[in-house]
Amino acid sequence: MQNVSTYKMKAAEVTDPFWQKYMEIVREEVIPYQWKALNDDVPDASPSHAIENFRIAAGEASGEFYGMVFQDSDVAKWLEAVAYSLENHPDPSLEETADEVIDLLEKAQGEDGYLNTYYTIKEPEKRWTNLRDNHELYCAGHLMEAAVAYYHATGKRKFLDIMSKYADYIDSVFGREGDKIPGYPGHQEIELALIRLYQATGKDKYLKLSQFFIEERGKTPHYFDIEKEARGDTSRFFWDNSYGYHQAHLPVTEQQSAVGHAVRAVYMYSAMADLAAITGSSELTDACKTLWKNVVQKQMYITAGIGSMEFGEAFSSDYDLPNDASYTETCASIGLVFWAKRMLGVEADAQYADVMERALYNGTISGMDLDGKRFFYVNPLEVTPEMSRRKDKRHIKPVRQKWFGCACCPPNLARLISSLGHYIYSQKNDIVYVHLYIGSKQQVDVQGQKVDIVQETNYPWDGEINLTVNPEQEEVFTLALRLPGWCNDASLTVNGEEIRQDAVLEKGYFYLRREWKRGDHVHLKLAMPIERIQAHPNVRENVGKIALQRGPLVYCVEEVDNGANLHNLFLPKNAKLSTSFDPDLLGGITVIHGEAERRDEASWGEDLYSNTHASTIPAPIKAIPYYSWCNREPGEMLVWMNETI
Amino acid sequence: MQNVSTYKMKAAEVTDPFWQKYMEIVREEVIPYQWKALNDDVPDASPSHAIENFRIAAGEASGEFYGMVFQDSDVAKWLEAVAYSLENHPDPSLEETADEVIDLLEKAQGEDGYLNTYYTIKEPEKRWTNLRDNHELYCAGHLMEAAVAYYHATGKRKFLDIMSKYADYIDSVFGREGDKIPGYPGHQEIELALIRLYQATGKDKYLKLSQFFIEERGKTPHYFDIEKEARGDTSRFFWDNSYGYHQAHLPVTEQQSAVGHAVRAVYMYSAMADLAAITGSSELTDACKTLWKNVVQKQMYITAGIGSMEFGEAFSSDYDLPNDASYTETCASIGLVFWAKRMLGVEADAQYADVMERALYNGTISGMDLDGKRFFYVNPLEVTPEMSRRKDKRHIKPVRQKWFGCACCPPNLARLISSLGHYIYSQKNDIVYVHLYIGSKQQVDVQGQKVDIVQETNYPWDGEINLTVNPEQEEVFTLALRLPGWCNDASLTVNGEEIRQDAVLEKGYFYLRREWKRGDHVHLKLAMPIERIQAHPNVRENVGKIALQRGPLVYCVEEVDNGANLHNLFLPKNAKLSTSFDPDLLGGITVIHGEAERRDEASWGEDLYSNTHASTIPAPIKAIPYYSWCNREPGEMLVWMNETI
After folding, report:
1. Pairing outcome for strands B475-482 and B431-434
2. Rounded CA gap, B95 and A336, in Å?
């Protein structure tokens, strides 16, 4: 088997002003806040009890389990975020705290390796009896991911060993042979985690266990039915009694379109992509590509939000993308980043990096305010605050919330942002890929030689990228630079010499093969005009509307800049649009100004319906990057604007 | 007190081709079908048990109560529809059946007058303990309405006496004095019914009891809280624990906008309007006008659908009128007709008749298919069949259903349609009003003289109306003809002589005062061009869209005529529109043809988002009256079309 671990490269050092700010916020706000929350040390938040649960399971405290059945995963995500943070920014005190938590996990672990506080404390005899609902394998997966990250960050094996022991135990319980359990989790996660554990430890059995979970899924008779019957449970499953919710309605290689809970789906697709890359399975590769195509061509918002339905936090049907009723969970866009990264392991095609970038600059970081204190679970594309009173739009919060009872999104964002250094570059043999334009330093090992790559850019505000390549000695290898899908006009030089682009471009990457020497300078310039984007005509909700995009950033208009009743703004086809960088606004953003029209409510009168036409008045508009919305006075927001009048 | 009973006039004989068809369907399809349903004689429908409940309560059968707590009201609505039908179309066998049901009611009635099968059979000791939820007074009200109608239709007093006895008993139970119950119903209906009972019997105490229920409503402490505590019920009320659902959040005269369950609301407003007209209360008159203004200027669909929210079958907030997620229950539009008719009793202003007409020709009869066999509970303005799979749009059925477990709408439509003869004319002193243009013969009594009025028209297909006035002898009185709000160009002659309209027009009525003699001929011609209607700019969902209307009819486009993806149709501002009458289509309708454009899905390619613009192709469109949609192949439908491209 070919090991194409996307994690074998050390994390790049992120020097990018845009992202450093986020990483700092995660380090200084989110991780400490989350630690307090895990320890019930936030006065006005609902208690987490997550650390206390481990103390009780470890015999260090007495009491009852409290929280969600997946409460352990909050600790796991925190540890994983801490690991990445330490990788970027050593912090002995934080590391000590993490080590103490790891000691606690060790004590909470059973002799046999089992580690789950809900079952250990509350229903020890009921282990593995409800894989569908109870998140045991999900929690195990998150702990495995954390353990691998912590091992890479600190070199310490303890946590990795704990989780290997747990994985060994799980491997002894699940499988097709003998009286092993032929089941799989209701919430996918362990599948991708086992692959990381395999990559970190080299133990094939973890890879095989992941394959087992993936291959077993959706076979008939349904394991969820079997375990349900064994439990004596005769109730209907809430999601129309369908296993589509868990993507267990069909064997994974037969699934043609994304259905069900969006986070579960993309976590599973991530594992499938890893397996496809590692095993070279053409069935899995085809399945991944089919599902990818379905998601990005039919079920993804322009912000890279996915899951257009609150019911089941789920995908809906093709082209059903309501802007004001979407679910578009922060975690789902994060999962889309995970999947995109892994698709790049299957195939170096810039379309995957395009979506990864779209998610990173739009639908993921929109989940957090600019100071890391408040979070969106749901990231709508259109908000009218009073509409959140409608039951069918109640999930659309007009302002970010402090913390969630089900605290999945904030720690997920924390681990994504602090691991950003793992997403910028990748390597396959002697090709070094640059997927994202983020100021950074990356050391790679090409043919046994160390090569330092230094990237400097003011992305996403302008499209000028400077790369310096510093091999220890002159060396022939390929540097592959992504040409973003949004860019129609790029210039590329190496040491000042223009490159004929069509000769080196393949699937969205410029392949620069040459003998590189210290100080070689690559200059890529991506034109970043303001683009007026239309949606596919099958998207009912966006007909006659456009969204503004510049570079990777999707823009929106907010009431605070443009007044109320944003739906009455119309951007004529020939409207003048211009940009300016405002260093004092929202942490420094490029603003789009435009000459729009608005239907004049004041001139209309009282009739609800009339055969007269509303008059229009000129209305200058100001659009800001979507990610930065809801950081000033609360109010309306919209991404898709009427185009003409 | 001034008695302005809108029912003192006998029903007009309806000779109108458009409405006769509906009345015939109700007589020949709906009433017989409903009778079978009430007797559990429809093989594939869920059992009603409604007649059997009365048999059990009467001691003629044994068994348990079955059905909704308001099951009795199905029998009441059937009896009421039968009464109106007999009024139009005597049918001795049907009358005999009705008489037998009335005999049964008599036997089911308690010694004290109480008549409710749920409580009599199931919880006799719990009478009046849950006015909020259990519909006791609601059922009583429907039976009273039926009794009054039956009395007027047949002259037989038995049913009226039964219900008077029940009303006397209710009057002895409810009130402010002594240990009477200071409560009021959760579902309004008895308030308007008591007024009809008062008008039929002349007994003031029924009027006063109605007043009591209306005036007591919404006072603090809330009666619903008092009875809830007495029941030991500590649960939260499902509608956000708000009494707005029952319009009991404030005293009725303090209510400024329509909230809560739409049917309950308009039934209550109907009673308020009756009381305002009868008592002359300026507070009630003001409250009615305020609420009317709120509903018709801010919360009513162009089809006269009301209730834009599935949650609680309720009003939402001002201008929140989503086309594809509305509730717009058939019964709510019917209730709006009831209310509008009664507002005409408060004040002769054509705006009330305009809404009555809008509801009659659009949002009420859309609830039934053209052969009276299938029914909509919910009347959306935009349907994409596969969207009904979304949980938040699941109430939107893409096709009419056979019958409902909660069978309120079909019998409500039956009683509305068969009582149409009561809505066309009204009289105040020596003014005879013509509110609706429906072919009919009406006999009125003016100053002790009989006057026959004969109306002939091909409405709603053309706007030519001929009225012949035949007094027994020459007599001075006023004939007041409504100028519909949709009409901008009318011509009016009496015996061929042009009338100067501005001299006789007041609040939408032409007042023709003269000495009328036999054979006088009034000719009114209402121009009926195709109108392109816009919604108020505050209606987010309709921005940039228009609806086609001609005369009183709102039009829609259906997939069967226009292909799928109706959202991609754009009607340019200068689009040519024409009409033709197709006698073979949908029972004979005027079709609107237009030259539209459509965004061409086929030319777009696979991208979900692109900076290219979808090309457009010419697309002839064919629009049909909204009421007639969903009578051919199922598919998409929409009322509000994009206006330009």
Report:
1. parallel
2. 69
CATH of domain B425-526: 2.60.420
Per-residue pLDDT tens over the stretch A569-605: 999 999 999 999 999 999 999 999 999 999 998 889 9
Cβ neighbours of B454 (radius 10 Å): 16
- Rounded to an integer, the average pLDDT of A356-365 is 98
d(CA A511, CA A482): 9
Residue of A nearest to B531 (CA): A611
Residue B5's pLDDT is what? 43
Whether the CA torsion A601, A605, A608, A612 is positive or negative: it is: negative
How many residues are there in chain A?
645
Instruction: Please indicate if any CB of chain B lies within 8 Å of the CB of A96.
Output: no
- Where residue A644 falls among pLDDT bands split at 50, 70, 90? confident
H or E segment to which residue A22 belongs: helix A17-25
**Catalytic residue list contains A313:** yes
Helix (H, G, I), strand (E, B) or coil at B29: helix
Closest by CA position to A435, among listed A524, A514, A363: A524
Instruction: Tell me the nearest-neighbour CA distance from A470 into chain B, angstroms.
Output: 38
Percent of chain B with pLDDT over 70: 98
Using CB atoms within 10 Å of the CB of residue A118, give its burial: 0 to 12 exposed, 13 to 18 middle, 19+ buried.
Answer: buried
Interface of B with A in 561-580 (CB under 8 A): 565, 567-568, 570
Parse chain A into domains and list their residue ranges: 245-423, 425-526, 530-644
DSSP B175-189: SSSTT-B----SS--
Q: Report the DSSP pairing between strands A616-625 and A589-599.
A: antiparallel
Residue matched to tokens 């210039």: A491
Nearest CA in chain A to B309: A390
| Kind plus residue range of the DSSP H or E element containing B341 | helix B330-346
**Is residue B474 pLDDT above 60, yes or no?**
yes
CB B109 within 8 A of CB B115: yes
B632 phi/psi in degrees, rounded to 5: -125, -140
Contact B396, B386 (CB under 8 A): no
**What pLDDT shows up at residue A515?**
96
- Residue B8's pLDDT is what? 63
Interface contact flag, B533 A389, Cβ < 8 Å: no
The tally of CA atoms less than 13 A away on the side-chain side of residue A580 is 8
Q: Which residues contact B376 (CB under 8 A, 6 or more apart)?
A: B330, B366, B367, B368, B397, B400, B401, B409, B630
Angstrom CA distances, B285 to B143, B267, B269, B354, stand at 27, 16, 10, 19
Q: Would the pTM of this model clear 0.80, i.e. be above it?
A: yes
CB proximity A642 to B under 8 Å: yes
CB B249 within 8 A of CB B259: yes
Confidence of residue A48 (pLDDT cuts 50, 70, 90): confident
Q: Calculate mean pLDDT across residues A347-352.
A: 98
Q: Nearest-CA distance from A336 to chain B in Å?
A: 16
Looking at CA atoms only, how far is residue B497 from chain A in angstroms?
A: 31
Q: What percent of chain B has pLDDT over 90?
A: 91
Distance of residue B412 Cα from the nearest chain A Cα, in angstroms: 27
**Which residues of chain A are within 8 Å of residue B325 when distances are taken between CB atoms?**
392
State whether the Cα torsion A78-A79-A81-A85 is positive or negative: positive
pLDDT (mean) for B8-16: 89
Does the beta carbon of B530 lie under 8 angstroms from any beta carbon of chain A?
no
Task: Report CB contact under 8 Å: A386, B300.
Answer: no
Tell if the CB–CB gap between A611 and B531 is shorter than 8 Å: yes
∠ Cα B477 B480 B486 (to 5°): 170
Interface test with A, best of B292, B392, B615 (most A CBs within 10 A): B392
